[in-house]
Amino acid sequence: MRLVADDLTLSRGERRLIEGLSLTVEAGEALVLTGPNGVGKTTLLRALAGFIVPEAGAIRLEGGPDNGAAVGELAHYVGHANGVKPGLTVSENARFWARFLGGDVRAVEDVLEIIHLADIAEVPAAYLSAGQKRRLGLARLLLAHRPLWLLDEPTAALDVASQALLAGFMQRHLDAGGILVAATPGPLGPAGAGILELAAPAPGEGAAP
Amino acid sequence: MRAFFALLARDLNLAFREGSALGAALGFYLIVVAMLPLGLGPDMALLSRIAPGLLWLALLLSALLTLGRLFETDLEDGSLDVLATGSLPLEAVVVAKGLAHWLSTALPLTLLAPILGLMLNLEFAAYPPLLATMLVGTPAISFIGTIGAALTLRSRRGSLLIALLVLPLYIPTLIFGIGAIASLLGPGGSEPSLMILGAISLGAFVLGPIAAAAALRAQLG
């Protein structure tokens, strides 16, 4: 299985952020998107998840399960917002994802144990700290199996121990033949990950015609 | 199907637990209807004659109050991204959310209407037709509402825009809702208006989610 993007052109409003970008990520490989703020890391990730329709080019998952599913349906996308419902408890959030994303509800307890949220499983998510919410948001990765992980600054708000925990998950995902694309402004995670440095367009090229 | 019911259960759970949207809608309905006799004067015969129309109109406005939050909280906390990457098509996501809105908002408002009818001196025979037309007609409110809510998702002052977009689309439901009450009360009790009201609801149930899902896709970018 591999993730292929051909000759992508992406715009945000009137601004053309990415032009003519091609990339291939093989199964078991990670790609880290780096570059200054506003260069298009999130835009590229959201395009890979299928949220943004590219102006030109195509995105596909080659050799994936052959059931006509869109790339987005085979991907976990964890963005800046964690997708945590403040009105539900920690375990209710996790159980909803397991059911909605086609995972195993019985795994919820174990997953909460792994990410050290089992003690506060019945606390409404509104009372969690930013780092705890982040950990809960990342629990989706473990609750339902998806071959493609798209993570936008996954380590934001995480403490050192949690970052190590996340690095472990990512490594295991890659070892199992998964694909990982992560955006980060700083250094991150799995050793041997490919790095794609997005550069700001030169002055004058930024505006779409 | 499991994903559909998981979403429906989650939205119902949130609606009844947080309660503020439902409480505001029910409270608004109560206050508007309580103020009407003050504005119209104590003419019992007049109130009785226009009561079905007033109850329908006030119900539409009360339901309108709650539409703004339909997708907004999901956009704010990132849940919409999760819903969009599920195996459930976005159209089915909208159906689940529209159904949850109907069960948690439109249905309680409908059940409150007969009680408020007492304040407007609604004639006794009109209670069953009122309830029947509201049960048949209110799904259109929720499912037409999903279109407005999805279109105005990222706009400031979205709730004002929703009113402008959605209220004109509620006109057929209002006309045939009141028409059905009149015809059910009339001699023979014929019900073509009720059938048309049902047809509008079914049409909204089919077309609303398609339009709303298209609008949501544009808003995800």
What can you see in these coordinates?
The complex is a heterodimer of chains A (209) and B (221). Chain A is α/β, with parallel strands linked by helices. Chain A has a domain at 2-84 and 146-197: Rossmann fold (3-Layer(aba) Sandwich), CATH 3.40.50.300. Chain A is 26% helix and 25% strand. Chain A contains six helices and eight strands. In chain A, the strands form two sheets. Chain A has a five-stranded parallel β-sheet with strand order 5-6-7-3-8, with helices on both faces. Chain A has a three-stranded antiparallel β-sheet with strand order 2-1-4, covered by helices on one side. The termini of chain A are far apart. Residues 202-209 of chain A have low confidence and may be disordered. Chain B has helices at 2-18, 20-40, 44-67, 69-76, 79-85, 90-117, 127-151, 158-185, 192-220. Chain B is globular and about 55 Å long. At the A-B interface, strand 5 and helix 2 of A face helix 1 and helix 5 of B.
Measured as a percent range, the helix fraction of chain B is over 70%
CATH topology call of the domain at 2-84 and 146-197 in chain A: Rossmann fold
Q: Enumerate the spans of chain B where pLDDT stays under 50 for 5 or more consecutive residues.
A: none
Specify the number of helices of chain A: 6
CATH superfamily of the domain at 2-84 and 146-197 in chain A: P-loop containing nucleotide triphosphate hydrolases
The total of helices of chain B stands at 9
Order of the strands making up the biggest sheet of chain A: 5-6-7-3-8
Structural class of chain A comes to: alpha/beta
The greatest interface between two protein chains, and residues involved on each side, is:
A-B, 31 and 24 residues
Helix vs. strand class of chain B: mainly alpha
Question: Averaging pLDDT over every residue of chain B, what do you get?
Answer: 91
Shape of chain A: globular
Q: The biggest beta sheet of chain A, please?
A: 5 strands, parallel
- Gyration radius of chain B (Cα, Å) is 18 Å
The percentage of residues in β strands of chain B lies in under 5%
* Overall CATH class of the domain at 2-84 and 146-197 in chain A: Alpha Beta
